[in-house]
TrEMBL record:
<feature type="signal peptide">
    <location>
        <begin position="1"/>
        <end position="22"/>
    </location>
</feature>
<dbReference type="InterPro" id="IPR001611">
    <property type="entry name" value="Leu-rich_rpt"/>
</dbReference>
<keyword id="KW-0732">Signal</keyword>
<protein>
    <recommendedName>
        <fullName>Leucine-rich repeat-containing N-terminal plant-type domain-containing protein</fullName>
    </recommendedName>
</protein>
<dbReference type="Pfam" id="PF00560">
    <property type="entry name" value="LRR_1"/>
</dbReference>
<keyword id="KW-0677">Repeat</keyword>
<dbReference type="InterPro" id="IPR013210">
    <property type="entry name" value="LRR_N_plant-typ"/>
</dbReference>
<keyword id="KW-0433">Leucine-rich repeat</keyword>
<feature type="domain" description="Disease resistance R13L4/SHOC-2-like LRR">
    <location>
        <begin position="232"/>
        <end position="330"/>
    </location>
</feature>
<keyword id="KW-0812">Transmembrane</keyword>
<dbReference type="InterPro" id="IPR032675">
    <property type="entry name" value="LRR_dom_sf"/>
</dbReference>
<dbReference type="InterPro" id="IPR003591">
    <property type="entry name" value="Leu-rich_rpt_typical-subtyp"/>
</dbReference>
<keyword id="KW-0472">Membrane</keyword>
<dbReference type="Pfam" id="PF23598">
    <property type="entry name" value="LRR_14"/>
</dbReference>
<feature type="domain" description="Leucine-rich repeat-containing N-terminal plant-type">
    <location>
        <begin position="187"/>
        <end position="223"/>
    </location>
</feature>
<dbReference type="Pfam" id="PF08263">
    <property type="entry name" value="LRRNT_2"/>
</dbReference>
<keyword id="KW-1133">Transmembrane helix</keyword>
Length: 376
């Protein structure tokens, strides 16, 4: 008797779950189906008289028969998204890319708080991106590119990138305000720097990590092609490390990061800044040696690395920097001798003072101080 009662109870509660949960989810999907034209019969298995949608093709459920995936990419569907989709509260993947979806994105999509991936790219969606999408804290992939969306990118998206899980956001190829499609490497470089440094004065506050034009950010200057030419971040109380991604800013002419609290080594990737005219990193706490890759900066005129904690030899390759006008490596812990040939022939000892282990100029044509010397 008791066991029969228990079985009955389990069945009843399971049935209750099924009706409450899944009929409403099935109803929502069916409402969407009724608004879509489906020339390829992709939604044929979506039969609303079945007790839940978990057996329908292109639908995946969890163990509680609640929908977690809708996979309808490249299905030839035409018509709108419907607000009813907002009831699919366990949905993690909404894949509806490359169809002919029209109309606007319903604000109710912002209720799908478990959503990991929202892929609506390559459709004909129009209207604004609902600001409610900024609620999607679980979101990792947001691809809305190649639609006809207008308006601006919701402010909340920058929070999702900086503090949430959002890893990929593509809103390109729409008609959104403030997007100029900066190159991927520019975005990578600037966001990497922003993430790497502490910024107690809020110097980088305007560096909004959505695709908004970085040329409108404070302390960033661009040329007429919207490529970054200057970073003016001197005296900004920035602390942290320089990031190798900075080396991707191919048009950068001025890298001004003097008088901050930067630590760690100078990334060798800075040698990739082939347009660089001025490298000002003086008055920080940089360590490690001067990368020999800087000898590739053929446009460099100003190299000021003074007042750091740089060690090792001054790379001889720097003498080939034909445009170098000003060199200051004073107040470090450099060692060995300093070169006197090439562009270095015009620098006086003043460029090198206060490096207690630096032995003096190398003796051209004579035995070099350097030879075999132990200098690290
Ligand atoms: C969109 O609709 C047009 C016209 O019906 C069709 O030719 C095209 O293949 C559709 N595009 C997609 C991605 O389904
Ligand atoms: C879906 O279809 C119904 C019935 O035709 C209609 O009332 C509703 O406005 C449609 N929904 C959208 C988002 O177009
Ligand atoms: C979903 O979102 C809309 C608008 O953001 C809201 O009004 C509604 O109460 C939410 N809940 C459900 C279950 O749709
Ligand atoms: C979307 O934009 C494309 C080109 O930008 C245009 O050809 C198409 O008519 C637009 N579609 C809608 C539905 O507005
Ligand atoms: C924008 O559209 C063009 C042409 O369809 C495509 O080649 C490009 O990859 C798209 N850009 C992005 C970022 O999706
Ligand atoms: C470098 O580090 C020292 C010791 O930690 C600190 O006193 C000094 O203020 C720092 N200098 C700069 C420019 O950050
Ligand atoms: C300088 O650039 C050349 C060509 O881009 C590269 O092969 C070389 O490794 C670079 N030199 C240094 C010291 O990084």
């Amino acid at each position: 008797m008791a066991s029969r009662a228990l079985v009955y109870f389990l069945f009843a509660s399971a049935f209750a779950v099924v009706t409450v949960h899944c009929n409403s989810e099935g109803d929502a999907l069916n409402a969407w189906k009724n608004n879509l034209s489906d020339p390829n019969g992709i939604l044929q298995s979506w039969d609303p008289t079945i007790v839940n949608p978990c057996t329908w093709l292109h639908i995946t459920c969890n163990s509680e028969n609640s929908v977690t995936r809708v996979d309808l990419g490249s299905a030839g569907l035409q018509g709108p998204l419907v607000p009813e989709l907002g009831v699919l509260r366990n949905l993690q993947y909404l894949q509806v890319y490359n169809n002919n979806i029209t109309g606007s994105i319903p604000a109710e999509i912002g209720n799908l708080t478990n959503l990991i991936s929202l892929d609506l790219y390559l459709n004909q969606l129009s209207g604004h991106i609902p600001s409610f999408l900024g609620n999607l804290k679980s979101l990792m992939f947001l691809r809305l590119n190649n639609n006809n969306l207008t308006g601006s990118i919701p402010i909340g998206f920058s929070q999702l990138i900086l503090y949430g899980n959002l890893r990929i956001m593509n809103v390109a190829n729409n008609s959104l305000a403030g997007t100029v499609h900066p190159t991927k490497s520019t975005r990578d470089a600037l966001y990497a720097l922003r993430r790497a440094v502490k910024d107690p004065l809020g110097v980088l506050k305007s560096w909004d990590p959505t695709l908004v034009d970085p040329c409108t950010w404070f302390h960033v200057t661009c040329d007429s092609d919207n490529r970054v030419t200057r970073l003016d971040l001197g005296n900004g109380k920035l602390s942290g490390k320089l990031v190798p991604e900075l080396g991707k800013l191919e048009r950068l002419q001025y890298l001004e990061l003097y008088m901050n609290d930067l630590v760690g080594p100078m990334p060798k990737e800075l040698g990739g800044l082939k347009s660089l005219v001025s490298l000002d990193l003086y008055h920080n706490n940089l360590t490690g040696s001067i990368p020999s890759s800087l000898s590739n900066l053929s446009n460099l005129k100003f190299l000021r690395l003074n007042s750091n904690r740089l060690v090792g030899r001054i790379p001889r390759q720097l003498t080939k920097l034909g445009n170098l006008k000003i060199l200051d490596v004073s107040n470090n812990d450099l060692c060995g001798t300093f070169p006197t040939s090439g562009s270095f022939s015009k620098f006086t000892e003043e460029s090198f003072v206060n490096n207690p282990r630096l032995e003096g100029p190398e003796l051209m044509g004579f035995v070099r101080y350097n030879v075999g010397g132990d200098c690290k």
